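Researcher: Please generate the 3D structure of the following complex. Treat every line as part of one assembly.
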Amino acid sequence: QSALTQPASVSGSPGQSITISCTGTSSDVGGYNYVSWYQQHPGKAPKLMIYDVSNRPSGVSNRFSGSKSGNTASLTISGLQAEDEADYYCSSYTSSSFVVFGGGTKLTVL
Amino acid sequence: EVQLVESGGGLVQPGRSLRLSCAASGFTFDDYAMHWVRQAPGKGLEWVSGISWNSGSIGYADSVKGRFTISRDNAKNSLYLQMNSLRAEDMALYYCAKDAAVGAMEYYFDYWGQGTLVTVSS
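Model: Done. Output below.
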């Protein structure tokens, strides 16, 4: 069960858009539409932001969007705001067990 | 309001055991699969184990298979994690998380507890 691959960090200025990638294999990201994304602020529990690749839970801003191509999923945040600064994790169903997470990406809003 | 409250964490010596509990409220517990996710200090999230609503489907991460056992008591609205043969690398904040789908596993988590800290040290 290797973790999904995410960039360690990304950054952007307020108002800009950023994209975080999440690369797996055909046994996880590429094989199923069970990709989700979580936001975690320091000292807080994770919060679900995207599920089933591109669906937003009620209450999550439409500035957050998800997509997938092949074995790589992506989270895009448009109109960056200071409060978006956090760690972001992707996860996917995997045929080898149930769930695998990415290593996490630290988003810095400059 | 959905609430998940973990307990049972603490300091334990390598090789010993610990049992975590998660008390659930604010939703129909026996409709949903439940999971344990952990986070080592300063590290990322790691899925540990999951159990379906009726305990008919259970899964474990390779890192804990054979040492940890997940269970649930629907009559008590509670989830458990029995951790045996603990190692230094098991030291983490353990979160209880609710699966989002009714009656099935959707493998994403819409509610999380605040976690219980497990420290493994001699």
